[in-house]
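Hi all, posting the design record for the shared folder.

TITLE: backbone redesign
STEP: 1 of 1
STRUCTURE INPUT:
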């Protein structure tokens, strides 16, 4: 499947059902995928900086090694998503459901993780699975601010 930008209709995929699609290795800077169903999609190594994935359903999607730098993942469902080795520098995860999402060895820099919302969990038990992730200028779910570069080795 070849996806090309359509400047006449940039939101042509708004609300589309792309569940189980394989887009591994796709080069798609600035992708506009608002409210798109990407449940169980394969986006391994996808290059999607500045993507708009607001309200997208990425439940159980595989985004290992994806570049989502400055991407808007606001209110995105990341339940069970695999984001190992992903680049999420300056991404917006406000309101994202990160229940059982795996951010191991990812770059989690310049983020505010206090506004993630794992479904079914009280606000005081928020956590994020990010063993080995690079944390830098990042506000963690518990309110801890990580100033200097550090790899998360809590687990």
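Okay, here is what came back for every position:
SEQUENCE:
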């Amino acid at each position: 499947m070849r996806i090309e930008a359509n400047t006449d209709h940039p939101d042509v995929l708004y609300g589309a059902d792309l569940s189980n699609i394989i887009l591994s290795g796709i080069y798609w800077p600035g992708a506009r995928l608002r409210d798109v169903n990407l449940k169980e999609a394969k986006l391994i190594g996808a290059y999607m900086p500045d993507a708009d994935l607001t309200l997208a359903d990425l439940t159980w999607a595989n985004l290992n090694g994806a570049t989502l730098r400055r991407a808007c993942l606001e209110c995105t469902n990341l339940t069970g998503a695999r984001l190992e080795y992903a680049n999420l520098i300056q991404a917006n995860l406000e309101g994202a459901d990160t229940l059982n999402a795996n951010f191991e060895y990812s770059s989690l820099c310049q983020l505010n993780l206090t506004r993630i919302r794992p479904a079914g969990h009280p606000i005081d038990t928020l956590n994020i699975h990010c063993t080995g992730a690079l944390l830098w200028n990042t506000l963690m779910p518990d309110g801890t601010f990580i100033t200097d570069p550090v790899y998360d080795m809590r687990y």
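COMMENT: Strands lie at 107-109, 134-136, 138-139, 145-146, 150-151.
Let me know if anyone wants the other runs.
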